[in-house]
User: Which sequence fits this backbone?
């Protein structure tokens, strides 16, 4: 409980400091959403570093921080490669633990500004000892001037245990809307839904989360955050907040 209370004080202070510091510079890469990937074109040779933090909380005292650190490389205008150095977590009562490494690729099919709809395909591999996950996404987006609407369709397959015999499937979707109020600030809402299929058999409960998002940007930096509340009653966290800080090199 002590860790959860301290995080409720520390996180708003961190967000406020980071948002204020961003306005000392002038332009940043696009990242309006914390749970949805956007349909973008890339700059060949560009390099970007992202740090993710997701805090999940339940009323019964469960509290967990998930961390990701990613290096993104613009290979061509249509293809981006992402390398996750380490995904790790801190859970109350259990301490820190390493979870996996990951590699992702995104290939752009059409432009969200000039085509009738923008589309990209996404693939990710997560791996560690006794763990393997494959994830695929279809990313859709349409921009209407300062307004962006995005949708991701997601499918995951997981294998666990020493022999990788325990399997699980996940089918999910995310959606969001974001309005650019100024070159430095966007705001909107996001939705997240997931259904698990243990052993690829009968489906479990479907969880649904909804809440606001904001993005501050300036110069080579940006900070994006979303706070989502569970709208259903499942065993998933009642509340989660994700922040993503990025810098272009």
Assistant:
């Amino acid at each position: 409980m002590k860790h959860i209370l301290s995080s409720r004080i520390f996180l708003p202070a961190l967000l406020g400091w980071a948002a204020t510091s961003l306005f000392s510079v002038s332009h940043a890469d696009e990242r309006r959403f914390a749970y949805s990937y956007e349909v973008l074109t890339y700059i060949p040779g560009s390099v970007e570093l992202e740090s993710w933090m997701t805090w999940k909380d339940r009323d019964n005292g469960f509290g967990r921080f998930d961390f990701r650190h990613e290096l993104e490389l613009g290979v061509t205008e249509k293809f981006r490669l992402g390398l996750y150095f380490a995904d790790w977590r801190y859970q109350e009562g259990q301490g820190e633990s390493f979870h996996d490494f990951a590699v992702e690729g995104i290939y752009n099919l059409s432009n969200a500004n000039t085509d009738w709809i923008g589309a990209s395909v996404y693939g990710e591999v997560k791996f560690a000892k006794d763990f393997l996950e494959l994830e695929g996404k279809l990313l859709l987006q349409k921009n209407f001037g300062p307004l962006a609407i995005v949708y991701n369709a997601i499918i995951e397959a997981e294998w666990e245990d020493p022999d990788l015999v325990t399997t699980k499937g996940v089918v999910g979707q995310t959606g969001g809307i974001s309005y650019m109020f100024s070159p430095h600030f966007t705001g909107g809402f996001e939705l997240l839904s997931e259904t698990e299929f243990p052993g690829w058999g009968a489906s479990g409960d479907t969880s649904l989360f909804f809440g606001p998002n904001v993005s501050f940007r300036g110069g080579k930096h940006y900070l994006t955050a979303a706070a989502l509340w569970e709208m259903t009653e499942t065993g998933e966290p009642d509340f989660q907040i994700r922040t993503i800080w990025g810098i272009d090199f």
About this structure: The longest strand covers residues 166-182. Residues 2-40+101-242 form one domain. The radius of gyration is 18 Å. The chain has one domain: 2-40+101-242.
